[in-house]
Amino acid sequence: MGINADEPAPPEPESLPPLDFATMVTTARSVVDSDARLPDEDLEMAARRLRGHLALLIPEAEARLGRLAGAGVEEARRRLTAGPGLLGPRRYAHCLARSVLTLCDHLNPTGRGVVLRWSRDPRCVGLARLELRKALADWGLSVLEDSAVLILSELLSNAGLHARVSPEQVIETHYFRSSGGLRIEVHDGSPVWPQPRTPDPEALDGRGLLLVDALADEWGVADRVGPGKMIWASLSAPVVRPSERDCS
């Protein structure tokens, strides 16, 4: 069945710029590797940049990693708010740099993330799947496509159906390539966390989270920066042994 010509077209996805991890790591490395060679004015500028990086990294780590961010976030927050104090400017800059590198390592962005915003229009689910397929192809992870698009469909459909938020509160999808595979996140403005349930055998719905649990290596729910929550799922890419690669 086609879309009625009188119906408005689903909105185009709104792309959000991902964090510039490369710049963050470069700034931190320049401080860590400099020893005592950086002039005071360059050290001051680097410290200001590192503080700015941490101000972005801390909420990102909390939103994406939740409790897994743990000690790294707490240490980064203490360094961000404490200032040089007894450490002195040079040692303080080194501590900031170490925190930046730690959080970047936790977030593990081995590939460029894709962050998109959607309305609750059901047709956005198909568009989101298309963007995920493009990202997987770019990252050489098409082997995960079948499971990944099913997981995304369930999470995004649930957000559109059950996240009772005002129309102006959009839903965000985040796709990240990790060192072991893929992480999918769906952010919405509702504070209500989903609860897996045993569906009625006669019911046509209620199996979404059971499907996600069956397909994903791990999944969970976490608070996000601002109102609402974030549901995430991760998939590992299969390991190809040398013998299998030779036979392909």
Largest β-sheet summary = 6 strands, antiparallel
The portion of residues assigned to helices is 40-55%
In round numbers, the mean pLDDT is 78
Enumerate the strands of the largest sheet in spatial order, edge to edge or round the barrel.
1-2-3-4-6-5
Strand element count: 6
Number of discrete helical segments: 8
Q: Output the radius of gyration.
A: 21 Å
Separation of the first and last Cα atoms: 40 Å
Give the topology string: H per helix, E per strand: EHHHHEHHEEHEEH
**Which shape, going by the Cα principal axes?**
elongated
**Low-confidence spans: pLDDT under 50, at least 5 residues?**
none
Helix/strand structural class:
alpha+beta
How are the secondary structure elements laid out?
Elements lengths: L13 E3 L4 H12 L7 H26 L4 H13 L6 H19 L6 E5 L5 H15 L6 H18 L8 E7 L3 E8 L19 H8 L2 E6 L5 E8 L5 H6 L1
Helix pairs in contact: 1-2, 1-4, 2-3, 2-4, 3-4, 5-6, 6-7
Summary of the model, kept short:
This protein is an alpha+beta fold. The chain contains 8 helices and 6 strands.
